[in-house]
Amino acid sequence: MIRKVLVTVVVLFVFIGTGHTQTNKAEVDVPAYLVRSRIEKLNLQTPVSLTYNEHVQAYIDVYTLKRPDHLAGILARSEMYFPLFEEYLDKYDLPLELKYLAVIESALDPRAKSSSGAYGLWQFLYQASRMFDLEVNSYVDERADPVKATDAACRYLKYLHANFNDWLLAIAAYNGGIGAVKEAIAKAGGEKDYWKLRPYLSDQVRGYVPAFVAVNYVMNHYEGYGIEKKTAEFRYEDLLTTSVDGGISFEQIAAHTQIPIEVLRLLNPVYKMDYIPMQPQPVRIVLPEEKFEVFHEKLPLFEVETEPVATRNPAPGDTLGRIKGSHIVAPGQFFHEIAMMYQCRIEDLLAWNGLENKFLHAGQQLIVWKPAEESCNRVSVSKVEESVDINYYNAGAEEIKSGS
């Protein structure tokens, strides 16, 4: 959010050249003139200027050709979050298309966390959370609260637009901060046209607006690339909100209502330890509509818990919440060092590899199961920018405008 430039945007996807495709590239090649025409039509529907150029196309290619499965997942999650975003954007008289910023920021994952510590759907840094009255403590992180974080993002976007009176500059400032954009304007001799100002911005901020335009496009025209939306786990209309007194663990809720803990985590990411802490006033909890009545029927049976359920050590070799990988033992490495590296126990390493002793040798390959959070499904905007083949696009200048 109000962030250092180096912290920005680590939010699209992992490596540009990796990922699964849903259809052959030959089947999804869309001519530049058609993409431009579609974006021009989208531009008529919003006060945010949407322009097509080679930089925008680079991001379109990442979403549609190189990471279509990732886009399919975002499309599914949009059914749960976009109606909420639109409600708050409308409340603050903001362009509804700003909902696509959250796609760039977090891929619509409320628990997304950048290497800099920015967190949530809208990627607020810890210090910024205090500016927007988002509580962050050991039990609660309101940066992950879809409602409160969206409200904060809307207030910030409205403030940014008031500073620049230009949506593209406001969007760039959302990523790099007001100071970075004002500094670029000064370096450019007072230029305030984003596309002319763009060369004076840092790599990360420079790519943010093209990514925003591309997301507008791909979220509306994904079917033309053979991409099928994944099945949404929940839609906005499938959920209901109620209030409860604190002092209840997700484990207790699950035991009484048969709502899986994984679902409670998904719908209530604000609670960090699977526990709704003791509070002076009732707090919100989101439930599947089909379980709403059951929850209230069982509520009198709930017992007050003054602290989270004690964390139970899983059995050696447990892989829940982890992704399989490998590790090559370096000279002098020992088990404690490797266990700390992958946030596991020595007993896990032994179990994963069928080892009976703690003897290691350099070059030995170990099976490791990395914490899922370490599997970053994003790529920095600057890397996408580096992939732009300007010569290729300029060769078709009659079909595509130059970006800068």
Task: Describe this entry's structure for a reader.
The chain has 18 helices and 6 strands. It is mainly α and 404 residues long. Helix 4 crosses helix 7 (146-164). The radius of gyration is 23 Å and the shape is globular.
Question: What topology does this entry show?
Answer:
Blueprint: H1 25-28, H2 32-43, H3 54-66, H4 68-91, H5 101-106, H6 126-131, H7 146-164, H8 167-176, H9 178-187, H10 194-197, H11 203-221, E1 239-244, E2 248-249, H12 250-257, H13 261-267, E3 275-276, E4 283-288, H14 292-298, E5 322-328, H15 335-341, H16 346-353, E6 365-371, H17 381-386, H18 390-394
Antiparallel strand pairs: 1-4, 2-3, 5-6
Helix pairs in contact: 2-11, 3-11, 4-7, 7-8, 8-9, 8-11
Roughly how many Å apart are the termini? 26 Å
Summarize the main sheet.
Answer: 2 strands, antiparallel
What structural class do you assign from the helix and strand content?
Answer: mainly alpha
Helix content: 40-55%
C-alpha-based Rg, rounded: 23 Å
Q: What's the mean pLDDT score? A: 87
Describe the oligomeric state of these chains in a short phrase.
single chain
Order of strands side by side in the largest beta sheet? 1-4
Tally of helical segments: 18
Secondary structure: number of strands: 6
- So what's the overall shape? globular
Which range does the strand content fall in? Answer: 5-15%
- Segments where pLDDT lies below 50 for 5+ residues? 2-21, 389-404
